[in-house]
Amino acid sequence: MSVRIVGCNPKDSGGGVFQSHKYFILRTSNYGMMENKFNSDRIFVLLVIVILYLGIFQICVGAEGSYISHPSRVNSIIDELDTPKISPGESCEITFNLYNPYNESMEDVRLNVSIYKYVYLGVEKNISVIEKTPVFSANIDVEQSVEFPTLESHEKEYIELELSSREDTEEGVYLLRFWLEFGYEGENHVMRSMGYFSEEELVEAGASDNETYQDTGGLDLEQLGVSGILPDSSFSVKSSLPRWPRYVLGVFSVFFGVLAVMFYFQEKYDKFPWLEKTFDHWSSEFKKVGRSFKKRFDKS
Fold first, then answer.
1. Would you say residue 58 lies in a domain?
2. Range of the domain at 287
């Protein structure tokens, strides 16, 4: 900025006028500098706001893209699953909650639960080769489906499925897998357990090193043809131990406990003289038996 001074002669007017014009020039220059600084601050603030907006927008877009498939939501769909133990020839219930973790309702919900594998002592067999497998009591089959027209946002449906076995059902662990179909905001989604995929399929879909798939558990779900991976489960078939050994053990524990207390009082206070006589009697009898065995062994 330049300022032109007209009619200023320091000899004619003295130092006062010159000094006032000098002050005016400095003041005008300071004002211009402050105005430029203010404009720079405004541009900087606007630039920061634009960068933050773009960052938040990208985060929201990424979160929306993985909203359905995110493991934190998929893993909560099958909630509070109970894995029971069943004895051959008896029945039991598999119980769990079917939960909608999303902000909108799930439509036309269909869940299939199936027994697909048998494991015993580290040996795995497909359920198709097991002759006397446990079955679902409702349809006498190794799989059963449940359906719901609508599952509202954050709503839970309690599900109870009865399993029955035969007397000659093979003991071991039986693995369960889940298949879920539902509609969400006009799109159809399918989710399945790991039990529906072979090891080769999982290896090919594995992409844990790729940041694109970190929000889907490190798997390329599109290649697997699903929107999410549901957890597997299991139940066991095992014969219960007979109860009579426990009863016998309990009786012996009580009997020897009472004897211990009685011997203690006998030694301290001499209150059970008959106990001492009984003990002496049986001690002499055991000694006689011991001497007779000793004589027989000496003769032989």
1. yes
2. 244-299
pTM across the whole model: 0.60
Residue 95: partners with Cβ closer than 8 Å, 6 or more residues away: 80, 81, 82, 158, 159, 160, 161
Q: Which of 186-190, 203-207, 261-265 comes out lowest in average pLDDT? A: 261-265
Angstrom distances, CA of residue 60 to CA of 57, 65, 106, 144, 214: 5, 9, 22, 38, 16
d(C-alpha 129, C-alpha 107), whole Å: 36
User: Which residue has tokens 């015993």?
Assistant: 120
Q: How high is the pLDDT of residue 277? A: 72
Neighbouring residues of 159: CB distance < 8 A, sequence distance ≥ 6 = 95, 96, 97, 98, 111, 146
Residue 205 has pLDDT above 60, yes or no: yes
Q: Are both 39 and 75 inside the same structural domain?
A: no
pLDDT in tens, 232-275: 999 999 887 666 666 777 877 887 776 676 666 656 656 667 76
Residues 76 and 53 in one domain: no
Same domain? 136 vs 34: no
What is the C-alpha to C-alpha distance for residues 161 and 113, in angstroms, rounded to an integer?
Answer: 9
Q: Please list, residue by residue across 195-233, b when 16 or more beta carbons sit within 10 angstroms of its beta carbon and e when fewer do.
A: bbbeeeeeeebebeeeeebebbbebebeebebbbbbbbb
Residue 26 lies in a domain: yes
